[in-house]
Amino acid sequence: MTLWLLGDQLYPEAAPLQRHDSVLLVEAHEFADRLAYHPQKLTLLFAAMRHARDDLRDRGVDVTYLRAATFGDALDDYFAANPGASLTVMRPSSHGAADRLRELVESRGGSLSVVASDLFVTSPAEWDRWTDGRGDGYRQEQWYRHVRRETGVLMDGDDPVGGDWNYDEQNRETPPDDWDAPPLPTFEPDDLTREVHAFVTERYGDHWGDADLDGFPWPVTRSEALAALDQFVETRLPAFGPYQDAMLQGEWALAHSLLSPALNLGLLHPREVVDAATAAYRDGDADVPLQSVEGFVRQLLGWREFMRHAYREAMPGLADANQLGQERDLPPLYWTGDTDMACLSAAVGHVRRRGYAHHIERLMVLSNFALLYGVDPAALNRWFHLGFVDAFHWVTTPNVVGMGSFGTDLVSSKPYAASANYVNRMSDHCASCPYDPDETTGEDACPFNSLYWDFLREHEETLRGTGRMGLVYHHVDDKDDAEWRAIRDRAADVRADAANGDL
Ligand code: FAD
After folding, report:
1. What is the pLDDT of residues 41-67, one digit of tens each?
2. Potential cystine with 347: which of 172, 311, 365, 498 (Cβ 3.0-4.6 Å)?
3. Domain residue limits at 138
4. CB of 120 closer than 6 A to ligand 1?
5. Which atom of ligand 1 is nearest to the CA of 390?
6. Tens of pLDDT along 120-140?
7. pTM of the prediction?
8. How far is the CA of 270 from the centre of ligand 1 (A)?
9. Angstrom distance (rounded) from CA 51 to CA 431
10. Which among 66, 97, 115 is the end of a domain?
11. How far, in Å, from the CA of 390 to the mean position of ligand 1?
């Protein structure tokens, strides 16, 4: 039997791969005509697939590699050469994909057996056992503790190492002025990657984002991904914890791992990433503080695994969830980066340049602005999906629609909505921005402020009752009619300026 390996399932140690000596890989192109995907994302995907093909062949695996417009076209060729063949596939992460693939195979006279995915730490059965009897009331933090207990990661018998489960409060520092960001990896594209890049830029010429491969930070092979993991653990993990939420002018990565593209393609397994980080903490070589290793492990065992299962549970409704009824289009600045708002301009610039912005830019700048402005969550999801090198439907959708847009309370019981105060506290952007973070109304006031209060007022009926917004609505109640009129006027001006590309 042949294993059909999808482009985001490239992990060479996956159990099903050990049980098959032939593999089918299909590089389909037409899907990328539907959205203006970042050229670096397409280059990364196709280059990783072609390198995986060559690595598997070097290991003696018989690989059929087909390039075609669609999966259907590739399967026409495959079944013409292999009539009635039986294929196996690891369960795809995207909702409904297993059924679609089975239909494509069976309609060509073949059969498809779908086996469990070996690309995550926890299984759907584990999640089902954990959620059993919890109703909808599950939260990431409880899941995270459960996974720590089950895996024994950072555990001291039955207790968390250090006595606390979570050191989040120590993850909110901003670096001192003389801080030198640790070095970043770059991966000089080889001939094969350059060939893919030439194909991508010619085939998808007018796509959004910078096609320049100079300083390409994304590993495209398993060995590069392992090198990126080592480099992160040795040089950036120590500072990951304290500066996890910080934003600095001119620093696009700070001490983040930049491992999400490799993880999401299967070039790295999340368990080996967690093990490398905890080993560095245990061995003491790299001087990794507990707040850093715990913060990092929480992202992977907590958030990443949680999002994967939450997506499975909440689809198909999640993709269109919009409990706040937000309907605006994305303002043009998401495409042009053209705005005087220093934080927003920097974050969009980072996405355009490399298809990446770190978590706090994604959550507290890019999606916070869209949330307060009133963007339709599905439109924001499309933008993230096409613009980010690590975007795959299973992980982008719960993050954008759930966490960033509060389209549903799947991920949190209140929206991640914040005024300029947050950006001012966590970054140095406001110092060089023409907008004043301390003003709410008037032409110079930071747009985040009037939008924030206007948003709270607009969605009062839904938000006041969520239980965790009491303090915030206390401040809403303190404002008099004249203040509200001024806020409304300023918010309307901000929205009009943003819609006209004049913010
Ligand atoms: P680090 O900060 O170094 O974190 C380590 C790892 O933890 C990441 O590589 C990632 O695998 C995992 N992780 C952390 N937070 C999350 C999370 N919320 N969900 C899933 N995994 C997480 N992540 C994606 O992989 N793809 C996406 O398309 C994506 N879209 C996002 C959109 C929004 C609006 C938000 C708020 C978050 C999104 N995330 C997404 C989650 C997170 O922001 C990225 O995983 C992270 O920024 C990737 O950079 P890094 O590898 O340097 O992460």
Report:
1. 999 999 999 999 999 999 999 999 999
2. 365
3. 124-192+220-314
4. no
5. 26
6. 999 999 999 998 877 667 789
7. 0.97
8. 12
9. 45
10. 115
11. 8
